[in-house]
UniProtKB/TrEMBL annotation:
It comes from the Eukaryota. SUPFAM superfamilies: ClpP/crotonase (SSF52096). One of its GO terms (cellular component) is mitochondrial matrix. Belongs to the enoyl-CoA hydratase/isomerase family. This is Enoyl-CoA hydratase, mitochondrial. It comes from Branchiostoma floridae. Its main location: mitochondrion.
Amino acid sequence: MAALRVTVQKLLQARSAVSPLLAVPALSRACHHGHHFEYINVSKAGEKQNVGMIELNRPKALNALCDGLMGEVKTALEDFEADKEVGCIVLTGSGQKAFAAGADIKEMSIRKFQEVFGGNFLSNWSHLADTTKPVIAAVNGYALGGGCEIAMMCDIIYASEKARFGQPEIALGTIPGAGGTQRLTRAVGKSLAMEMVLTGLPITAQEAQQAGLVSKVFPPDQLVSEAIKAAEKIASHSKLVVAMAKEAVNASQEMTLREGVHFEKRLFHASFATNDRKEGMAAFVEKRKAEFTDS
Ligand code: CAA
């Protein structure tokens, strides 16, 4: 066993020497789709293995979103986007305490204006919001700062009764930088968003549900299984038509009502060009279950 471990370590060292991008410092790293992950766990779930799971896994730092972690999330999302089996993705945090306690403050504290402005710091986070496949955030604990912001980039938010949502950047002498002032305001309205952003104080899962930020709240031990159940339901539909529906709902955040309704109508018309629309309606008429082919 020890010999095997040494051999694997040598192989990994050789790999690291070839490309720094493939550097694998620890044998404990998770591996999925040929990628090695240090800060996240990646797997597939559901009876048909059609749900992509991403678990943020830096529990000692309350899953703070360091550059390495966000880079890995981007890679995992790209893998799931390309995976024909996957119809929906669930994003959650390891442990019970945190979904993510925000951007990594220790990493951020030494950065200068020239660096963050010139390098457009946080611009690579938007990948989560640009994903074609639906993403459900299963918020198991603290979702603060960037943690709340990445949850809001997802399409649906489920929360555990222990979850807390907040934008505490003001206490660090800065403001939300990954959509917190924009997505939160659209989700909960101006008064509550302003209160959260200006006081920095968090709200409970129940308050978040009441405000419309969260669609469902579950006991902690049921959160992820309920998120997977919803993801399986979404994944059972035509992926092509699910993507159209997601795009139409998202358009409502960017367009006037007239533009949005027109956009929706055109996508509705476009669905008539798909085999899955024919199949869905034929199955209803013939009183059988639809067999979608994502075409
Ligand atoms: N960045 C880096 N490390 C963090 C972190 C963060 N955002 N949040 C927590 N940690 C680390 C702590 O430093 C601590 O590490 P050490 O043991 O090495 O000291 C460990 O996680 C545990 O944290 P605490 O001891 O503080 O745990 P607690 O239970 O006492 O408090 C908490 C929990 C209230 C969430 C507290 O950790 C906290 O306030 N965290 C910071 C929250 C925050 O300000 N987030 C916004 C970040 S800025 C941002 O996100 C900008 C943006 O818009 C993208």
